[in-house]
Amino acid sequence: MVSSALSVDVPPQPWSGRFDGDSAEHRRWWQAVSPYAPGAESPDSPGHGSAAHAASRPAVILGFASDEGVRRNKGRTGAAAAPAAIRAALGPLAFHLDRTVSDAGDIVVTDGALEAGQARAGQAIAAMLDAGRLTVVLGGGHETAYASYLGVAASDAVRGGQRLGILNLDAHFDLRDEPLPSSGTPFRQMAEAEAAAGREFRYAVVGISEPNNTRALFNTADRLGVRYLPDEDCTAERVRAFVAEFLAGVDVLYLTIDLDVLPASVAPGVSAPAAYGVPLPVISEACRQVAESGKLLHLDVAELNPAFDIDGRTAKVAARIINTLLQ
């Protein structure tokens, strides 16, 4: 329990990294991140001028330690260890941000209780969003996405009528129609929830791998009006135009990054390494474009599996992407 206003399973732990000095010019992430202390609403809350002040809105990190969805989806488990690995990769990075960053600790899924963990994470995310924070979730398998969605959908911004867009950087649609939710079902669950709420499902994917998505999944995507850009078409120019067009039709954005969108040589530590993938500079530029739009409400990074990583390569990529998004 962090406070009476926010409940997590594991409170924030001390960060560590290289020490070059205590002054601001020497500061690194491990020195800059503080435990999250729920309190007064930030003046940059969504709907209260946050677009104009997006670069300075306080950010809060929340871990979602889960690979139950990956297990249900018959993938390689191990993503539950990812939040700690990403924090360890972030810690030594030089801190150049113009915003404060705090850590709220972790939600942990145990004994197969995925849905309960997603609900707890959603409650924490919604509370932090409504307090004016930019929420950053460290997954976890891509079942993390539905936990993120529960928080975003319950936020004042979305409940107040702002048009929500969901942008997924991913090799997969994750639109499976299965009786048991998993890392392969979160966006189908979102589509159903948005329909039940009477809202349009605005979902776009950058990096779709045609050989890794069945015709049934493409048919589902077409039926739901999903916009997508295949990995082989992901030049910097086409991705920028695709993202710009999607951003133009939404008020607030939930960005989710499945690290298997990247080539296996760049991100080997994932459940399903990509044979092709989208180049890191293209993904990084798309993230920068989203950050500069002023519409970013919430983000998560999913599918890091430290057990299959090589020299922490994938964790370092995840850390670099988060750093880019918060600049």
In the CATH hierarchy, the third-tier topology of the largest domain is known as Arginase, Chain A
Percent range for β-strand residues = 15-25%
Low-confidence segments, given as residue ranges, are 45-51
User: What is the CATH superfamily label of the largest domain?
Assistant: Ureohydrolase domain
State the separation between the terminal residues, measured CA to CA. Answer: 30 Å
Domain module count: 2
- The radius of gyration over CA amounts to 18 Å
- The overall strand count is 9
Helices and strands: which structural class? alpha/beta
Roughly what percent helix? 25-40%
Largest sheet: 9 strands, parallel
Summed up, the helix count is: 11
CATH class of the largest domain: Alpha Beta
- Gross geometry: globular
Instruction: Write out the strand line-up for the largest beta sheet, numbering strands in chain order.
Output: 1-3-2-4-9-8-5-6-7
Describe this structure in words.
- By secondary structure, the chain is of the alpha/beta class.
- The chain folds into two domains: 11-38 and 57-160, Arginase, Chain A (3-Layer(aba) Sandwich); 162-285, Ureohydrolase domain (Arginase, Chain A, 3-Layer(aba) Sandwich).
- Helix content is 34%, strand content 16%.
- It contains eleven helices and nine strands.
- The protein has helices at residues 29-32, 68-72, 82-90, 114-130, 144-153, 156-159, 186-196, 215-223, 236-248, 280-293, 313-326, and strands at residues 34-35, 59-65, 101-108, 134-139, 164-169, 203-208, 227-230, 252-258, 296-302.
- The protein has a nine-stranded parallel beta sheet, sandwiched between helices.
- Strand 5 (164-169), helix 7 (186-196) and strand 6 (203-208) form a beta-alpha-beta unit.
- Helix 4 (114-130) packs across helix 5 (144-153), helix 5 runs parallel beside helix 7 (186-196) and helix 10 runs parallel beside helix 11 (313-326).
- It is globular and about 55 Å long.
- The two termini are 30 Å apart.
